[in-house]
Amino acid sequence: MARADVLRRLLILALVLVVVLGLIYASSTWFLKKRYPMLYRDIILLYSSEYELDPYLVFAVIWVESKFDSRATSRRGARGLMQIVPTTGSWVAEKMGLKGYNDDSLYDPDINIRIGCWYINYLKELYFGDMNLALAAYNGGSGNVRKWLNDPRYSRDGKTLEDIPFKETKNFVNRVWHAYNRYKRLYRL
User: Fold this and answer.
1) Which of 41, 129, 134, 170 is surrounded by the fewest CB atoms within 10 Å?
2) Where are the alpha helices (DSSP H) in 27-165?
3) Choosing from 52, 65, 94, 162, which is the catalytic residue?
4) Model confidence pLDDT, tens digit, residues 36-51
């Protein structure tokens, strides 16, 4: 056997070994818990309970929106852990009677999570408990969800969506449910 053939086979074997070890490492609980942390646990448990939300869902929304970066700011101006736009933050703060609110308050984890949980609960109630619709509205706006529900291309019954026409919103909903399932498998609350 030629030396080049031996080297080629060793290289292939080394690559297979790296892939197998990478898959084992990536699927380990330790690695997954590092990738899906439970930061701000006490605040999330407090407000998810207060606003009758599944805490795993709140962890998932935060993971998708900001990866737990309390200073995150989107190109559209959404702020903080749950990526709340200032207009929504102001509206929710007024509805909640939150004193001393200003747009920079959205960088405070306690205020951001409180407002985010209130808003998700509001959307959940608006859509009769349908969390897919609530999540679509959280990302794409409730006005758009209303339009989609009234459009037979996206909803046959006017109550559920068969398709979400905004790619970003469809990806958001799918990513939240993926993260939600990860959190449920990794942690017991």
Assistant:
1) 129
2) 29-35, 41-50, 55-66, 86-96, 109-126, 131-140, 142-149
3) 65
4) 999 999 999 999 999 9
